[in-house]
Amino acid sequence: MGTVKTKRMPRAVREQQMLDAAVRTFGQRGYMAASMDEIAELAGVSKPLVYLYLNSKEDLFAACIRREAGALTEAVRAGVDRELPADRQLWDGLRAFFTYTAEHPDGWSVLHIQARTHGERFASEVAAMREDIVAFVTQLIVAAAREAHRDPDLGEGEVAGLAEALVGAAESLAAWANATPGVTARQAAATLMNFAWAGLGSLMEGRPWSPP
Amino acid sequence: MGTVKTKRMPRAVREQQMLDAAVRTFGQRGYMAASMDEIAELAGVSKPLVYLYLNSKEDLFAACIRREAGALTEAVRAGVDRELPADRQLWDGLRAFFTYTAEHPDGWSVLHIQARTHGERFASEVAAMREDIVAFVTQLIVAAAREAHRDPDLGEGEVAGLAEALVGAAESLAAWANATPGVTARQAAATLMNFAWAGLGSLMEGRPWSPP
Amino acid sequence: MGTVKTKRMPRAVREQQMLDAAVRTFGQRGYMAASMDEIAELAGVSKPLVYLYLNSKEDLFAACIRREAGALTEAVRAGVDRELPADRQLWDGLRAFFTYTAEHPDGWSVLHIQARTHGERFASEVAAMREDIVAFVTQLIVAAAREAHRDPDLGEGEVAGLAEALVGAAESLAAWANATPGVTARQAAATLMNFAWAGLGSLMEGRPWSPP
Amino acid sequence: MGTVKTKRMPRAVREQQMLDAAVRTFGQRGYMAASMDEIAELAGVSKPLVYLYLNSKEDLFAACIRREAGALTEAVRAGVDRELPADRQLWDGLRAFFTYTAEHPDGWSVLHIQARTHGERFASEVAAMREDIVAFVTQLIVAAAREAHRDPDLGEGEVAGLAEALVGAAESLAAWANATPGVTARQAAATLMNFAWAGLGSLMEGRPWSPP
DNA sequence: CATGAATGAGTTTTCATTCAT
DNA sequence: CATGAATGAAAACTCATTCAT
After folding, report:
1. Does B80 touch chain A (CB under 8 A)?
2. Where are the domains of chain B?
3. Mean local confidence (pLDDT), C111-117
4. CB contact under 8 A, A168 and B164
5. What is the per-residue pLDDT across A15-39, written as a single tens digit (0 to 9) for each?
6. What top-level class would CATH report for the domain D1-54?
7. How far does the CA of D134 sit from the C1' of F18, in Å?
8. For residue C183, which residues of chain D lie inside 8 Å, CB to CB?
9. Long-range pairs of C57-61 with CB within 8 A, sequence gap ≥ 24
10. Is chain B touching chain A, with at least 3 CB–CB pairs below 8 Å?
11. Which has the higher per-residue pLDDT, B82 or B141?
């Protein structure tokens, strides 16, 4: 499955091959356990070439994160039509998200797990992407309230907590769906929509659960 | 800051000191980056003693996982009274969970992050614990339906998905609460109850969201 | 000729063996070309032990410099009786110096050549030692003038330049004597005394050479 | 700061640019620490071209030594008029020498330090140059004796030692003068003439210092 | 029981050097 | 001629692990 070893390719192509190999290795082994030797071999090049193009293990990892974060963001963005109703947007976004994470489990692992556990430099790059997504979901919640002609009795902090919980639930479900054979992206999205949209609806109708 | 160095303690005590040091180190540095040197020093013992008692880095890590998983499970179990109504049980369990993760961030990091990224052996040990918890939540959902005299139109798979989503959301919120100053365990639990219980209620009243 | 490989020695002894090996290797190959592998092998230990005791190549080199500078200084000091007349002191000091450099060519190379060409950190350590020696020689020149009941028409700067030239000449002669078979320490010292003492005498008698 | 990159220059010119870059790099970084990459970049050419013209790092270094040794020799030769009295010749030669070393510190470093510490091949090339100079100084000493109508009671070995000491002192003073701001070539030369010529004079007048 | 002494195997990284175009 | 693409070999350094005392 490793990239076929061909000689003398343009730099841009080789760089992508290296990033492919790196994402796969980092995703499966983890940042620390991944060795530059393994990455180079999987990419079908010698180690010095990896260093020539990507500088260091850290830089290589950062490049992986940037590429994968961009790709995931782009996939979700492309799946959503901002003209449609809020629930439809959320549904489409979730499907795009679960589809992408299912098709790129290593990239998702790099973003979700590896990047968060190996230094501020990496964590902050992912945090930025995540904030984009949380902001998007927050907008949808507010839009949903408006569409339902409700004035949600929710403070800003509460909406943020909800968006955070929704995104967190999505992240967890992605891991679960990846690990559970037979669970499709569509099913994962439906489960979450059921759970979340109904809950939001109830909240907006003024029936929150309150602690005893 | 390490345990004070005292001579000749019973083996069980020494082992706990070692596990304390190991959990702290694994939690903060990650499994790969943690060095046996650092752990031994933090525990106030010599390295060979660590090997004598715990065998290897792998075994030491496994011991950490077992201890921490047990402690977390126990904390949640102790916080819940199985005689109370389902929503109260969930509320109490969530509070116990968020309290524990806030007070033992390194242990939680070991379970939630480290154990899942370093080989099947560790992942499966945590998965077992997690399944216990998901099973507990599943029971609560079913119990809630029964209490409400509803026949939930939910298949087993759907309930499982919901429980999974709930647990996943809790895990995400734990990380979020730990990282966000000013968010208490109680607040995290309230946010999630609001989100989840209302959603479950709507579902049971037969108003699920359905895909377009 | 390498140190015989014996097992389990006290740290202090091993450290000296390592320094011996390092001085020899640095002296013969130069700082950059010397490899830690070679040093460890010559010392009869494994590389990790070298790092355990001496930390890094830089620290190891610095330790060599410190040890060798101390030994050279001590050898010269031990060879001189500060109660004797100035010329006798200079003669004795030079003999001790040439003897030492002849017997420890690698140590001398480390101090004279290697330390000066690999970063301020090392250069300054040798510079400190050299300044000690230049100061000593300066004292002797002044003492010589006093003994001769002369008031040397020499400014401080000029005396410094002379001391510098004398020390420089000694350093060069050391290399020359080491490289020229059949030149003894005594001969090297005699050549320099002839050259220097007579010159100083002339200067003090007020017969300097003056530029055209 | 590197040579401006221009296309299609005659080989001889390109070679000089490469040697300029190499001398500078070797002089400042040292032989081992200098990288062919840096040299090629500083010369404004691609690495393969350096190899095409100069063959290898060793050959490149040797070419530097040859060029710099020739230039230094030539500078001294050009500064001296062989018709003038011996002391004047020495004075002029020293001034030329100190001037050259001050103006070409990297070249001087290559000759004085680098070449001597990286293998017999390079050392011997510098040694040859140095012997030329020592021979020249030896001639001057003999000529000085003749001019003074003295029959120096000095054996050949002694004269050689004196010349060696003088040259060595000059080399040391060159380093000292380069490192000490405010010391001009003229001052360095004056210091050494004072020291040396007076000493020689005394010797020839039959007042050598003799060991106790 | 406890530890100072020791290492094999691996890590990231760099460098002189060569082709194919 | 000139260069972008590529690498074999080795460097400094680290770490989990084990004896001998």
Report:
1. no
2. 1-54, 67-204
3. 90
4. no
5. 999 999 999 999 999 999 999 999 9
6. mainly alpha
7. 61
8. 161
9. C58/C121, C60/C18, C60/C19, C60/C22, C60/C36, C61/C22, C61/C26, C61/C31, C61/C114, C61/C115, C61/C118, C61/C122
10. yes
11. B82
